[in-house]
Amino acid sequence: MTLKNYVLWILAAVCLLFLVMPIQADAIDDQNVIYQQSFASDPHWITNNPSYDYWEPGAGRYHFSLEPSTAGYAYIPVDYKDTSFNLDYDLMLTRIDEGAKFRLAFSSKEMDPEKGPCIATVFTNAKFGKIMWLQVVTPGNKLLNINSQSGATAYTGSSIKYELNRTYHVGVIYNKDQNTISMKVSDKQTGQEYWGYFIKLNDELNGMNRIWIGSIGDYGQMNLFAQGYIDNVQLTAPAGAVATPTETAAASATTAPPVTPVKKATPKTTVPTPYPTTTQSPSSILIPLAALGIIGGGFYLSRKKE
């Protein structure tokens, strides 16, 4: 290569770099942060179970211990404006007894997993072992859910199990224009995607204003626990849809009255809605779906652990 050609090659590379940089910046600016918490400082989450659910300042994460039939919770209020959103967090489960479950949800102030609106990511250990769920209750109280066990619901992919003492990144995407909601679980360290799926909704989601973890609505045997840590909780929406974000939402108290065991109540009657079979994937995840492989017209998105 001559000196002239070498100089021209360097100039071309520099020009290409300047062309790419604005595109990357635009991609970052496309989302507005409604709430974000790295737990590097006191998150001021409100809990009725301070001995079980608490901030660990040394580790910079939030500890939880969820027990059925105690109605324990920890939450933070958020200023959500009924738009499309992304909800992301990191999760490590260190213990989950058979019959226990972990739930992180985005819902109304009732924080009731059986009453809409409620979007919940759930990790259970029951009949099918350690599997993951996406559960949605619409404002009209219609229940839709899907899990990572093949054939247990409308999901027909390979069964995917999670592991203890491993950090996962969990992402939920609500596309209001397409009226779809999706969940994706990936390995935090490697970025490898483990499982993902999406649901077509019949109703628009609105009225959510709390991000919470807890055992509200779980009436199983006591002295069973789901324990571990959450970190890096973030709720974002399209730019221009929300006000200026803050590190933590305003909360004057971090504890509530101590939790007391509750007797098992008569379960509510919910109306299961069949999982749709003729929808297309939301535009925001169309390219990743195509890259990973599509089954059943664009519904299935998963990868086995290697």
Provide tags for this entry.
2 helices, 17 strands, single chain, 306 residues, nine-stranded antiparallel β-sheet, disordered C terminus, eight-stranded mixed β-sheet, Jelly Rolls, mainly beta, 11% helix, globular
Please explain how this structure is put together.
By secondary structure, the protein is mostly beta strands. It has one domain: Jelly Rolls (Sandwich), CATH 2.60.120.200. Helix content is 11%, strand content 37%. It has 2 helices and 17 strands. It has helices at 3-29, 286-292, and strands at residues 31-37, 46-47, 54-56, 61-66, 73-77, 85-96, 101-107, 118-126, 129-137, 142-147, 167-175, 180-187, 193-200, 210-214, 226-238, 271-272, 300-302. Strands 1, 3, 4, 6, 11, 12, 13, 15 and 17 form a 9-stranded antiparallel β-sheet that branches. A hairpin with a 5-residue loop joins strand 12 (180-187) and strand 13 (193-200). It starts with a helix and ends with a strand. Residues 13-29 and 242-306 have low confidence and may be disordered.
